[in-house]
From TrEMBL:
Ligand binding (S-adenosyl-L-methionine): 53, 74, 96
Naturally occurring in which organism (per UniProt): Paenibacillus catalpae
Record InterPro entries: Methyltransf_25, SAM-dependent_MTases_sf, Uncharacterised_MeTfrase_YrrT
GO molecular function, one term: S-adenosylmethionine-dependent methyltransferase activity
Ranges where the Methyltransferase domain occurs: 49-139
Broad enzyme group: transferase
GO terms classed as biological process: methylation
Pfam families from the UniProt entry: Methyltransf_25
Top-level taxon of origin: Bacteria
Alphabetical list of HAMAP family matching this protein: Methyltr_YrrT
Lineage of the species this protein comes from: Bacteria, Bacillati, Bacillota, Bacilli, Bacillales
Sequence similarity: Belongs to the methyltransferase superfamily. YrrT family.
Identification of the protein by name: Uncharacterized methyltransferase SAMN05216378_2188
Length: 213
């Protein structure tokens, strides 16, 4: 579910790593400190980890240094092809945030970078309820993604994309399902998590949610 962006990611898969390296000026600020953002997620997890929206496998590579086992779930065939080229020792599955093959083991953590905004807020609610049912107390969800601290901040960021003539970025901000910290906090708390947020660049916030007992 929430797979309406898959064709776009199939097309983007071969050049995606050049975008995150800052080649595309429109997205440079979104990906500022990309490597550090991925590390901030990886250093907060251990054990058996499920990663959603794997992309080309950049976070996966870091997770493999700190985890026992990584299950990668990715709906785009183009992106999965890029991950396979890297030969990473993970179990890579066709699936998405809401629908994926049954995982045969206990899960310690669920992670994702730059991807949860592909779900509408109603889909996010369903996904978080599902993760709450999969994790034991102490299990965690760690996401890094564009989110907004307030309605004013959202407006300011959209306006500055327009002022800079970054029309692709502006279009993304207006049409994908970026949400607020307030909504994320509420959705996770309702499913029995404690939540904290840390800003990682102008766009990206780290969300760390720990399942209560
Ligand atoms: C901007 S890329 C991020 C890739 C990688 N996580 C990173 O940080 O570079 C978004 C990824 O999410 C995937 N994606 C899109 N919709 C998704 C969904 N509903 N469920 C899971 N992944 C999704 C895309 O195919 C793409 O690989």
């Amino acid at each position: 579910m929430g797979r309406e962006f898959t064709a776009l990611f199939d097309e983007w898969s071969e050049s995606y790593d050049r975008t995150v390296a800052g080649e595309d000026v429109e997205y440079r600020e979104v990906f500022a400190g990309y490597d550090r953002i991925l590390e901030a997620v990886a250093e907060r997890v251990s054990g058996t980890v499920v990663e959603f929206g794997v992309g080309t496998g950049n976070l996966t590579e870091k997770l493999l240094k700190v985890s026992e086992k990584v299950f990668g779930i990715e709906p785009s065939e183009g992106m999965r092809r890029e991950v396979l080229k890297r030969g990473l020792p993970i179990k890579l599955l066709d699936g998405d945030f809401l629908e994926f093959p049954q995982l045969p083991v206990r899960i310690d953590a669920i992670v994702s970078t730059y991807a949860f905004h592909h779900l509408t807020d109603a889909e996010k609610e369903r996904a978080i309820a599902l993760y709450s049912s999969l994790l034991a107390p102490g299990g965690r969800v760690v996401f890094a993604d564009t989110s907004f601290a307030s309605a004013e901040e959202r407006q300011e960021i959209e306006q500055s994309a327009l002022d800079a003539g970054f029309l692709n970025l502006y279009q993304d901000l207006r049409t994908e399902y970026y949400t607020s910290l307030e909504i994320l906090n509420k959705l996770f708390m309702e499913q029995g998590f404690t939540v904290s947020f840390t800003r990682l660049n102008r766009y990206v916030w780290l969300l760390e949610a720990v399942k209560l007992g």
